[in-house]
Specification:
Elements: H1 3-6, E1 10-14, H2 23-38, E2 44-48, E3 64-68, H3 74-92, E4 96-99, H4 105-115, E5 119-123, H5 134-142, E6 145-148, H6 151-161, E7 168-170, H7 187-192, E8 201-205, H8 217-230, E9 235-239, H9 245-254, E10 261-265, H10 269-278, E11 281-284, H11 293-300, E12 305-308, H12 313-316, E13 324-326, H13 331-342, H14 354-365, H15 367-380, H16 382-385
Parallel strand pairs: 1-2, 1-4, 2-3, 4-5, 5-6, 6-7, 8-9, 8-11, 9-10, 11-12, 12-13
Helix pairs in contact: 2-15, 3-4, 4-5, 8-13, 14-15
Amino acid sequence: MNYAASRSGFHLWFPNIFEFKGGIQVYSAFLLEALQKIYPQQSYDVFLKHDTRFIEEINFLPQTRFHFSGKWTAKLRTLMFACQLIGYGLWQRPKIVLATHLNFAVAAYWLKRLSGIPYWTVAHGVDAWDIKNPTLQNALKSADRILAVSSYTRDRLIAEQNLDPKRISLLPNTFDASRFKIASKPQYLLERYHLTKEQPVILTVARLDSLERAKGYDQIIQVLPQIRAFCPDVRYIIAGKGRDRPRLERLIAELKLQDCVTLAGFVPDEELNDHYNLCDVFAMPSKGEGFGIVYLEALACGKPTLGGNRDGAVDALCNGELGVLVDPDDLGEISQTLISILQRTHPHSLIYQPETLRQKVIEEFGFARFQTRLARLLQTHAKEIG
């Protein structure tokens, strides 16, 4: 059966891709690009809940039609977006709906009930955990396929929602390898943060939100006194903004680490690669990460990378092949591991081979691999789509 010719058109339902760049947004943009490379002759209608306009920096085919709902007020937007999704679906009868946020599965469920149009949805992380809404639970059970970004997200979703494992497939995150490359420590950042080239730097890139404390930056701050006993001039830089910053500032002051910890705030996209290259180890010992694109970006810059052993970081670091996994609740293990990495005595020799790290992470998670995985999934499950 020729899946590409079986029905007309794809409907893609995204939160947004143009005016905000979070993990789901980046994944959505890559999904659009990959689909259009696989089926360049198809028509594409992309429905965006929060965007108000398109920006040409994202790759898309000329026949792509964008539908923006960001013009509606927050109170009306969800309702109007759902009406748009179902209305256009009933009118155009796409071959399939792909939604990159689980909450959109509710509208997809009703569209399927009314017209038989199949739908796939994507499970990222916190959006897929502890779901109590019975309407959403029913929509997930009726999905033709759920794409999980990691084994951790898949397994947790199956356990909590009692879903059929055969209907859940892995499609891990990808990243733009051309944006993240190995380079020397940027002089302008050394000057900005008052560092020397030889000074060891630990880096975390994360939102500073009360809901994001599971990222592990608290644990690193708490073990810095132990790390300083072995690496006296170590500096810990946390890149990211959020409402948790005042609490972190108090914690840093209580531990008298003002000269050791730098809260860098929001880092623009054009400086992110330089920040990875500034560090000697990227560390995010999280315990609630759906996947963690930041691990891939750090690895592409050839950096030793540390993650937690209880969440999606296990997938991103290939079960420890590409980096070092630690118990995110074991402060002693975190401190000793970071000390050994900084002193270059850690037994995982690959983490000190930047070019090989970069090559391996691109081979496993680069866009070409993402596209290949998606093409295989579409071909494998063409029959269930119809």
